[in-house]
Predict the structure.
Amino acid sequence: MSRFLSQAALDFVALVLALSSFRYVTDFWLLSLVFSFQTHIALACLIPCLAFIAAGRLRTYASILAFIAAALFIHSLILKTDFGVLTAAPSPTKLRLLEMNIDSLNFDNAERIVSFVESSGADIAVILEAPPILSLFTRLDAIYPHRLGCGNRTTTCDLVMLSKYPFTKTEYASLSALRRDRLAIATVNPDGRPLTIIAAHLTKPYYDENHKLELRNLQGVVNRTGNRLVLAGDFNSSVITPDMQAWLASTSLRGGGYETPTWPASLGSFGIGIDHVFTRSPLVINSISRISDHFGSNHFGLMAEIGEAPGR
């Protein structure tokens, strides 16, 4: 490779790293997807830098870029665990929650999805982009007799919450004017004490400032709710993005450890986590795992077991 091509290749790497580093200067919505993929981008930039160093080409320049890429990569891994579980102590599971974005056009797999939900063992199921299973709710009624959304409290069917436990209070609302009916709130009593479940589906963050607006509105909902709280849904963003980091800090919500990759399903474990389950102390996530089958959706679902920190 000529010196000119080597210089051009490293200049391109420098440009990509600069775009990824903008998160430390500004939270510009147009770069939101870049911020979510910081881990992948940093690693993709680090590899060619190391190759140039090994080949002895533009070694000083490549070394500087390799250092920056490594720093971005390591910091992204730290951010993925920043808002992890508060305690490692085991606690009895009080609630088993399933979260799935099934893809609003995924009608071919509706029967398989419903069969999985029926056999999942979840106490609460939060299903997003639910139209494919709208005609099959009567099957689910036997196991989940309590429903919020998709004909109950709203005529739309983007988000539905299914429950084995009766709802003592319910609310259905919109997070912004861009997308209607993407917030559901219900109170259940799995252990004789009220526990609030919030389900949310946020707009993609590269649609102007709407993602930040919806996070602010969701922050208001979360912060007026008591501490026995579980929040699940599709945030269309990784926890490492600046707006998600600020939002988590402002709500005192925690996840279940390292962020679980859920999207795009085609990348499997190499994807990013945009579907999330959060709790607020004293509730903790005992375990959270990705469902092994994406059932034709571009998202993997999550199964979380919710407990309570000892002594609370």
In short: Residues 285 and 306 are 5 Å apart (CA to CA). The chain has a mean pLDDT of 92.
